[in-house]
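Q: what does this look like with FE2/S2 (inorganic) cluster bound?
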Amino acid sequence: MKHPLGVTINGVPYDRVVESRRTLLDFLRDELGITGPKKGCDAGDCGCCMVLIDGVPMHSCLILAAEMEGRQVTTIEGLARGDQLHPVQEAFIRCGAVQCGFCIPGIIITAKAFLEEHPNPTTDEVIEAISGHLCRCTGYLQIVDAIMAAAEAMRVPPQHA
Ligand code: FES
Ligand code: FES
């Protein structure tokens, strides 16, 4: 069975027809070519597929595309403003928190939403916030450092010349 779908993704409106059983993750990756969200487990266990739905982080592998009617979806591709990376993205680069990168788009999405709610987190709170994400490469230390650095950067008002 197919459903009409009107959804806004990274600020761009899309009108498509989707299969009832198509996940949001497959819709993003296979139909729209938005490949930032990764397919790790396809079962809600790894966090690689995390996206923001109306600002709330959710696993796109567990959600049907047809449920997204009228919603705002943000993927890692939607965080930068032109050439200006989001402070969380900049902090991950600065802190060397990216190795293979497979887990990183999902973690950055979670971190962004977390820091907006918790501008002054403790290290333990950051560890708890990303506890649903699996990373096979980094050992998590640099990732936690990057999120703490991003928190600081997001608290500092931008300097204007
Ligand atoms: S691919 Fe969705 S949680 Fe692993
Ligand atoms: S950087 Fe490779 S899985 Fe996290």
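Helices lie at 24-31, 87-94, 104-117, 123-129, 141-155. The mean pLDDT is 96.
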